[in-house]
Amino acid sequence: MWQLTEKKSTPVYQQIIEQIINYIQNGTLQPGDKLPAERKLADYYQVNRSTVVHALDELVSLGWVLRRQGSGTIVNEGNWGRSTTPRVDWRSLFTQEAHPKEPFLEKLQQLLNDPEAIDLYSGELPLSLIPDFRFPSYTWEELLLEERKQSPLGYRPLQQVICQRIETEQKIKVSSNQVLITSGAQQAMFLLLQVMLQSGDSVAIEDPSFLYSLPIFASAGIRLYGVEMDREGMRIDKLEQLILTKKIKLIILNPTFQNPTGSMMSNRRRNALIDLSRKYQLPIVEDEVFREMNFNEIPPSLKELAPHQVIHLGSLSKIFGSSIKIGWIVADQDLIQRLSEAKQMMDFSISVFPQVIAHTALTDSRFEHNQAVLVGTLKQLAQAFLKGAEAIADDWEVSEINGGIYVYLTWRHQHLTRKDWEIFLREKLLIAPAFLFSNDTMAMRVNYTRMTKQTREQFFAKLQTISKELRRS
Ligand SMILES: Cc1ncc(COP(=O)(O)O)c(C=O)c1O
């Protein structure tokens, strides 16, 4: 039993880890079973004791086995959901040094108010596309009565509408005590970090990912590791290598119209990701803020594939603009409870106002119709963009657009440096270069929904000029 039969290219300690995990998964080792002593294992595997110690350390940190004083190493009887404990260190946010500003972003932000600049950087729809709805007419007294419908998890009518929408769109039955209303998806992410992770923990994300650009991870002392993507999404082989070498505690990803690449994780890859997360008992946070902006059928959400393994985040900021800062977390009840406690401790309570407005918007009789009109308009904008992009196709590889708000353009020629991207600022063409989300310097994210016919023509004309200059540099 305790020997490696096949010769593999992976390091021996990794092979030992995989073998023990397999034994636990196929029932050869049962929860509570004791593993042989380290010295014995080293003899069986014919390796140094340090190799065995290394493998067991990894298994402990992945949560598969536990070390108990006096009784050696035993197979863990719990799972990740039970082993996490609430931990709130929001104060450290204020004691840390300010997050250093990205110089490119600083310059870009100064240009955002310049009337000559074309803003394809901002991550939301232009005002003209945001579906309209009538504000509810409440008296002050009526609003105060609505306030009574607030629970620690949020305004109950809004929670219920979200449950219904999740049930129709994702075919998952969730109850109100599995939904926590937050002030946007970013706050949702912040709460999850506080409750599920500790300073020094490692998280796997896509490479590139918009999460790199958020200061909340650095402030909480969380290490982010990017996993290469291919046409189907995050590469599972690369993710597994990372899990084995970096003690990954959580996987956070944005499988539907990913920010920044706009890409969609395939159904096959979603299933492979779930299998891997089950193998290592790693929870997944699925950020799905663009899910409702789809032109065609989309694969099932990760939450639908594995309801207890996946924590789902949604937000209204993408369809209603960022002034409605309303988002939500869908997870198992015990985790929601802990997140809600953390939210109260941090005094992150949300006034009933935006929640009543969000509820009105979602239950408006024209909502479905408005939603369909919006998707139709996005489709036309995407087609117009792709048509215009034929003029620059020799210089830029352009991603498909099947929904969401982003298209990704990759430079086809020589290596570009950060400095090269300053030409875009000089031309007042505001886009997001890939280096904001990754170590890559060859691509850019463009919010195609913010272009009118006129700005689209200007964009492609300017891009042709810039490309000529880049080719010469
Ligand atoms: C993929 C993704 N998730 C989450 C967010 C944050 O959403 P919210 O505005 O609801 O905080 C953004 C915003 O840009 C995003 O692009």
How would you portray this structure in words?
With 473 residues, the chain is α/β, with parallel strands linked by helices. The chain folds into three domains: 12-78, Winged helix-like DNA-binding domain superfamily/Winged helix DNA-binding domain (Arc Repressor Mutant, subunit A); 103-128 and 368-472, Aspartate Aminotransferase, domain 1 (Alpha-Beta Complex); 135-364, Aspartate Aminotransferase, domain 2 (3-Layer(aba) Sandwich), CATH 3.40.640. Helices cover 42% and strands 15% of the residues. It contains 19 helices and 18 strands. The protein has helices at 12-25, 38-45, 49-61, 80-83, 91-95, 103-111, 140-147, 156-170, 184-196, 215-219, 236-246, 267-279, 302-305, 317-320, 333-345, 352-363, 367-388, 422-426, 453-472, and strands at residues 65-68, 72-75, 118-119, 150-151, 154-155, 179-182, 202-207, 223-230, 233-234, 248-253, 284-287, 310-315, 327-330, 396-398, 406-411, 429-430, 432-433, 443-447. The strands form five sheets. An eight-stranded mixed sheet has the order 6-13-12-11-10-7-8-9, sandwiched between helices. A four-stranded antiparallel sheet has the order 14-15-18-17, with no helix packed on it. It has a two-stranded antiparallel sheet with strand order 1-2. Strand 1 and strand 2 (72-75) form a beta hairpin. Helix 2 (38-45) crosses helix 3. It is globular, with a radius of gyration of 24 Å. The N and C termini lie far apart (61 Å). The structure holds pyridoxal-5'-phosphate (PLP). The site of pyridoxal-5'-phosphate has 13 residues, from helix 9. InterPro entries: Aminotransferase_I/II_large, HTH_trans_reg/aminotransferase, PyrdxlP-dep_Trfase, PyrdxlP-dep_Trfase_major, PyrdxlP-dep_Trfase_small, Tscrpt_reg_HTH_GntR, WH-like_DNA-bd_sf, WH_DNA-bd_sf. In the C-terminal section; belongs to the class-I pyridoxal-phosphate-dependent aminotransferase family. Pfam families: Aminotran_1_2 (PF00155), GntR (PF00392). GO terms for molecular function: DNA binding; DNA-binding transcription factor activity; pyridoxal phosphate binding; transaminase activity. It comes from Enterococcus malodoratus ATCC 43197.
